[in-house]
Amino acid sequence: MSHKIKIQTKVNAPIEKVWAFWTDTKYIMKWNTPSPDWHTTKATNDLQVGGKFCSTMAAKDGSMSFDFCGIYDDIIPLQKIAYTLEDNRKVEIVFEEIDNEVQITEVFEAENQNSLEMQQQGWQAILDNFKSCVEKN
């Protein structure tokens, strides 16, 4: 049985803007990175059940890169996205409007290569970067 990891943030922006930044590749390219020394070099997103998404994250120094891809299992616009990664791990993201903010809760199945703490920190760093990108733009 795999562990599930939960991360959260609150974004001070309207739900429509939060959803657009989460799902539109022109925005995904801006925020989908855990730290300033990484960037997303390519992103595709077919936002429908059965649709595929894929983004390529790379170290800016060219030392490494990887693809993060999956297939959508469930989409409720402005509320929920669920998908299965290429390694069959499940991810669910819930968007809730609370007091003029959007709370994003992301739950994902852990992989076996990195510590749970490292995975939580990495995914949280990307989510924090998403928050600051939405609030700044």
Give an overview in words.
The structure is a single chain. This protein has 137 residues and is α+β, with helices and mostly antiparallel strands. It has a single domain (4-136), classed as 2-Layer Sandwich (Alpha-D-Glucose-1,6-Bisphosphate, Chain A, domain 4), CATH 3.30.530. 27% of the residues lie in helices and 44% in strands. It is built from three helices and seven strands; from the N terminus they run E-H-H-E-E-E-E-E-E-H. The mean pLDDT is 96. Residues 12-135 form the Activator of Hsp90 ATPase homologue 1/2-like C-terminal domain.
Biggest sheet overview = 7 strands, antiparallel
The CATH class turns out to be Alpha Beta
Total number of strands: 7
Strands of the widest sheet, in order across it, are 1-7-6-5-4-3-2
Class per helix and strand makeup: alpha+beta
InterPro entries: ASHA1/2-like_C, START-like_dom_sf
Protein name: SRPBCC family protein
Domain Activator of Hsp90 ATPase homologue 1/2-like C-terminal: 12-135
Pfam family, one: AHSA1
Short description:
With 137 residues, the chain is of the alpha+beta class.
Question: How is the secondary structure organized here?
Answer:
Elements: E1 4-11, H1 15-23, H2 25-31, E2 38-45, E3 52-59, E4 65-76, E5 80-85, E6 90-98, E7 101-109, H3 116-136
Antiparallel strand pairs: 1-7, 2-3, 3-4, 4-5, 5-6, 6-7
Helix pairs in contact: 1-2
State the main characteristics.
Alpha-D-Glucose-1,6-Bisphosphate, Chain A, domain 4, 3 helices, seven-stranded antiparallel β-sheet, 137 residues, alpha+beta
